[in-house]
Specification:
Elements: E1 3-8, H1 18-27, H2 37-47, E2 49-55, H3 68-77, E3 84-88, H4 97-110, E4 114-117, H5 119-122, H6 137-148, E5 153-156, H7 175-181, E6 187-190, H8 198-207, E7 211-214, H9 223-226, E8 237-238, H10 251-258, H11 265-279
Length: about 290
Amino acid sequence: MGYVDSHVHIWVEEILSEEMKRRISDIAKNAENRTNINDVIKEMDEANLDYVVNIVYPSREMWGSNEEIVIRAINFFRKYSDRFSIVGGVQVNHLSESETKYWIEKQYEAGVSGFKVHPPHMWLKPNAYRQEEGGLKQLEILYEFSQDHKMPIIIHTGTSYFPFARNKYGDPVFADDISVDFPKLSIILAHAGRPIWVNTAFQLARIRRNIYLDLSSIPPRKVLEYLPRLEEIKDKCLYGSDYPDIGVKGIKENLLEFLQIQISKEAMDKIVQINPKNFFKPLSYTR
């Protein structure tokens, strides 16, 4: 059984608008030489990666993208349907309730494996559906749909270095409300709150049955520094690289470094194979 990288952002030219190309060139100046799909698949083969989870979410403030980017991504990556899983998203604070329902259903029918919420890029708390936090009904619609359809929600936690990011929204403690209010919803805290909220993310994964951590963007050599009790939550963690983010050497190299972490074989197998496959399916999978 091969591995799964549960957190990548592969921006191929074929799915980008002209505005997105301009912004990516300005913000992530090393991105343009990392988007050859054949090179990506070759590296995946060399790393024994069965598939990767490509997270494609709209961000009008950051990337100039809207919900259509998810559909374009699915249409492109369907040519490699056994190698890619797609996670979509809706920018709920820019949509009406009816628009939110439309895009969630359209992405679901197209084949997404889950939805991403990026609070620092979207400028909202992930618990903003609660009355004391603003009562954003559109966010409640997203969580209810995901819970009813057994779709995981990935929430960015921790800081973001990108321009326009508002890092006050990156505290994972806001996900605690979601866990309580949507007890059958699987909530994955991306990046485990790194670097300043790791303890919070770890504790939430320990005490909340439906909260999980993805370990992406944490340098493999530092994982046990951030999470010395990783073995205790081996059933709640998913491997991810965050490729091609700054500091990630490559899909293959990041995985090989992670496989050298001094944890039990049982924990390693769960984190890099079993747990990700329980949540995410490639596009070739039929519901």
